[in-house]
Design brief:
transmembrane helix, 7 helices, single chain
């Protein structure tokens, strides 16, 4: 049986994300580099990577779509700063193409999952109950804790969700706008709502780069090994692995369900790895050090089908200073985890439960990102 991959276009078709000669221009952000570049509504993360044709396929059960509203909002926000880069020549065109132009590779992710047979793998519970401390159903238990320590410049706040599930496919991923590609974003709370998520956190902001292995909900979207990743298997295992020693096809053959490509690992065999504060994830323009005390998002592993979503607030004196990678690993260890993996942080860090944002994002509100990881029910 062939491993499921996202569908690709026939070579004779017009490249994704670009206009065909007869396609109306009124419904697309221009891709011509001569068009004045437009700045993003939220700049790329200062501490970490920021982080075409309609289909008649219906979204999986339980998924709500608001793509029209999202696209309109994004166009308005992008258009608000058109004058900023106008007239700056080639550099503006390069920046527009690198950071702003949506490069759609898969225009209907829901259809790709349906074609692969992974759109609705687990039978989701209908008996879920929410409380101030979590969520319980016949398939899922979520226990929420909020911790605050210190005061003034030493104040620290973090939010942990301990998750126990009876089917690994209950933890799912969602892409902004239900599309896969670079520079495609939406607010995490919108992605969570569109997918009826019980609990969600921001993902790895895959769309800021073109490297890494990207498998989501059992479908392969990218196979460009580059760094240490995190893989979720359908049998409940969650493991840190070296992308450069394998491939997306091999992982799928082994039962991979989701992969995340950011890092580094902050906890291995119950211990913080030596040199974790010196790890570099990317060296591309727009990405700066991930070291120092920052807002953080991380995944911790306690056992099979037993994990932790962790978000640490930061850059807010009197509320939370943020943490370095060593301290992040130590928090996960204190929560009972034996391994832990760092995700996109800074202004991207957010935790959403029952439609409400639990933490205090450092931007004063949500940052639009590429993807979320969520608990379906």
């Amino acid at each position: 049986m062939n491993a499921p991959h996202a569908p690709t276009r026939d070579p004779g078709e017009h490249p994704p994300g670009q206009l065909s000669p007869d396609q109306p221009t009124s419904d697309r952000i221009p891709s011509d580099p001569s068009v004045p570049a437009q700045p993003p509504s939220d700049p790329p993360p200062s501490d970490q990577p920021p982080s075409d044709q309609p289909s008649s396929a219906q979204p999986p059960a339980g998924r709500r779509t608001h793509r029209g509203r999202s696209v309109i909002r994004r166009r308005v926000l992008l258009g608000s700063g058109v004058a900023l880069l106008a007239g700056t020549g080639g550099s503006a065109a390069w920046a527009y193409d690198r950071f702003l132009r949506e490069k759609v590779e898969v225009s209907d992710v829901s259809a790709a999952e349906s074609e692969a047979g992974t759109a609705q793998t687990a039978a989701l519970a209908t008996d879920g109950e929410y409380s101030s401390t979590g969520y319980t159903s016949s398939t899922t238990t979520i226990t929420l804790t909020q911790t605050e320590t210190g005061s003034g410049s030493e104040a620290l706040a973090w939010y942990a969700a301990e998750i126990e599930i009876d089917d690994a496919t209950i933890v799912r991923s969602a892409f902004a706008q239900d599309e896969f590609g670079q520079n495609i974003t939406a607010e995490p709370s919108e992605m969570a709502s569109d997918n009826s998520a019980v609990l969600a956190i921001n993902g790895d902001y895959y769309g800021f780069r073109d490297t890494g292995i990207v498998i989501r909900n059992g479908v392969s979207y990218r196979d460009e090994p580059a760094r240490d990743g995190l893989v979720f298997f359908t049998d409940g295992r969650i493991e840190i692995y070296d992308e450069t020693t394998t491939s997306a096809d091999e992982l799928l053959a082994d039962g991979a369900w989701n992969t995340l490509s950011f890092g580094p690992a902050v906890l291995e065999d119950g211990k913080v790895p030596d040199g974790v504060e010196d790890v570099e994830i990317d060296t591309n323009i727009g990405n700066h050090s991930i070291q120092g005390e920052q807002p953080r998002t991380a995944i911790g592993v306690i056992g099979e089908n037993h994990l932790v979503f962790l978000v640490v607030d930061g850059r807010s004196e009197g509320h939370s200073r943020g943490v370095g990678l060593t301290e992040l690993g130590e928090i996960l260890a204190d929560l009972g985890c034996t391994s832990g993996y760092n995700l996109d942080g800074g202004g991207s860090s957010v935790m959403i439960f029952d439609g409400e944002i639990l933490n205090e994002p450092s931007n004063g509100g949500e940052r639009a990102t590429s993807d979320i990881l969520y608990v379906a029910g």
